[in-house]
Amino acid sequence: MTDSSLETADLNAPEGSNEASAPAAETPVAAAPAAASDAAAASDLAPAEGDAAPAAAPAAKAAPEMSPAECAAKLKALFPAIFGGGGFKPLKLRIQADIQERAPAQFSKAQLSSFLRRHTGNTGYLIALGKATHRFDLDGQPVAELSEEHRLAAREELARRRGLQQERQAAEQAERDLAQTQARNRAGLLHDFERTTLTLPNFCVLKGVTEAELPGLLEIARAERAAQPVREARPANAGPRGPGRGRPEGRGDGRSEGRGAGRPAGRGDGRGDGREQRGPRGRAPGAR
Q1: Residue 53 banded pLDDT, cuts 50, 70, 90
Q2: What gap in Å lies between CA 103 and CA 82, rounded to an integer?
Q3: If you average pLDDT over residues 111-119, what whole number do you get?
Q4: Strand, coil or helix: what is 134?
Q5: pTM score
Q6: How far is 115 from 82, CA to CA, in rounded Å?
Q7: CB 111 within 8 A of CB 63
Q8: Alpha-carbon distance 114 to 92, whole Å?
Q9: For the chain, what percent of residues have pLDDT higher than 70?
């Protein structure tokens, strides 16, 4: 099941199923169950064309040409409950016939088929289809239960897409890793070439490259080195914390000066004089 075909068979008629009124009459609605299989696609437009002869009159008027984006915007404006920005809802079977009945001659079969293929193939729609229990009409109202077959088909398609996405991401990561490894090897080759004292043949043998390959590899390595951002040289007075964040000049002297200036004048000398006049036990000389 492909990205664009999931659920499309339940919603869109084949491109050639409505070219004339006779084929439509040969595929009545009762020929296919409401939510059974891809056979329901043949009756998507049958009710709009086979009910009565006057129904063919509006079809004679050609629908205006519009781009896919214009078609989507117009459907969103006409039926915001189902095509608005409020999230995806599983569409009612044969909803294409309902659109042409509610908005006659405003959309061609090709325009609606193209829109519905993209809409029902959207990953968000498949997620909603895999979780929902009902289908919804143009007014956003539930009209029929969603079959487990269609829920399972949506989940399988999502699992397939996840597998492809994982494979693609793994391949992209492998390519990035290979490119980085090759760039490092070229940088090392250039570094050694600019410093080697070996002869060219000996250098090539040592590095495992031919003399014909070496100039091209060195040219690529020089271009890659030139493309790298230039590192700014650190200022001479910059410490570990950056320029201007070191210890202020004279901080140590300032502390010592501050401490000396904060003491009362002569305090140390006075204590020293007093101690010198005291005896062994702190008594003044001559005291009893």
Answers
A1: very low
A2: 15
A3: 95
A4: strand
A5: 0.54
A6: 14
A7: yes
A8: 17
A9: 60
